[in-house]
Design a protein that fits this description.
eight-stranded antiparallel sheet; single chain; 10 strands; alpha+beta
C-alpha cells in the first residue's frame, strides 16, 4: 500500500525532466570557441644543469626561515645563485647544525603558482654528487622543508607574476634589504 504511489511519482518526475530538456533551445557546445589568434603555450622544458663549484664561506648569505626557531642556520651561495634560461632558480644551500656540521645540496626552484623544487645534487668532501632520477616536487610546508617555501615566496620569485626576481634582488632580499611591501603577495596601499 505504501508503494502504490511510487510508480506514478517516478513517471511524473521523468515527464517533467524530459519536457524541461525539450524547452532547451540552445545546446551547449562541448568546448567554447577559441579565436585562431590564441595559441597553446609551449610545454615547459628543463634546460641542462651544470654543477657549481664548492661554495666559499665568504660568498654565503645567511637567511632565517619563517616559523619557530630551529637549531639550524641556512645559507645560500650568492656567487653561484643563478636564473637559467628555462626560468629555474638554481642555488647551493648550506644547512649548518648548532654543532657546526654542514649539509650541502644543489637545488632548483620553479616560480610556478604553488612552487616546485628539485634537488640536483648533494655535497660531501668538497664535491657534489648528482642525484639519480630526481623529479620536480611541490614545495611542502612541513617544518623541515619550510626554508624552500620561504625562498620561493619571499626571496626568489616575484609575487603574483610567477617569474624569478633578478639575481641582485634575490641577494638583497636574502640579506633583508628589501622593503616588506616588496616582499609580499599583496597589492600596495
Amino acid at each position: 500500500m505504501r508503494h502504490a504511489c511510487f510508480p506514478p511519482l517516478c513517471l511524473l518526475l521523468i515527464w517533467t525532466a524530459s519536457s524541461q530538456a525539450a524547452n532547451e533551445i540552445f545546446v551547449p557546445d562541448a568546448e567554447p570557441p577559441v579565436p585562431s589568434s590564441v595559441k597553446d603555450p609551449e610545454a615547459w622544458r628543463e634546460g641542462p644543469t651544470a654543477l657549481p663549484p664548492w661554495p666559499d664561506n665568504a660568498d654565503l648569505v645567511e637567511f632565517t626561515p619563517d616559523g619557530p626557531p630551529t637549531a639550524f642556520r641556512y645559507f645560500i651561495d650568492s656567487k653561484h645563485l643563478q636564473v637559467s634560461a628555462d626560468g629555474v632558480v638554481r642555488y647551493t644551500l648550506v644547512v649548518e647544525s648548532s654543532g657546526g656540521t654542514r649539509n650541502l645540496s644543489f637545488e632548483g626552484i620553479r616560480c610556478t603558482l604553488r612552487g616546485q623544487y628539485k634537488v640536483f645534487a648533494y655535497g660531501a668532501s668538497g664535491r657534489f654528487d648528482l642525484t639519480q632520477g630526481a623529479e620536480w616536487q611541490p614545495i611542502s610546508e612541513q617544518a623541515s622543508e619550510r626554508y624552500r617555501g620561504d625562498l620561493w615566496r619571499f626571496h626568489f620569485c616575484v609575487p603574483r607574476e610567477m617569474k624569478p626576481r633578478p639575481k641582485k634582488d634575490m641577494i638583497r632580499s636574502l640579506r633583508g634589504q628589501i622593503a616588506p611591501r616588496q616582499n609580499t603577495g599583496f597589492q600596495a596601499d
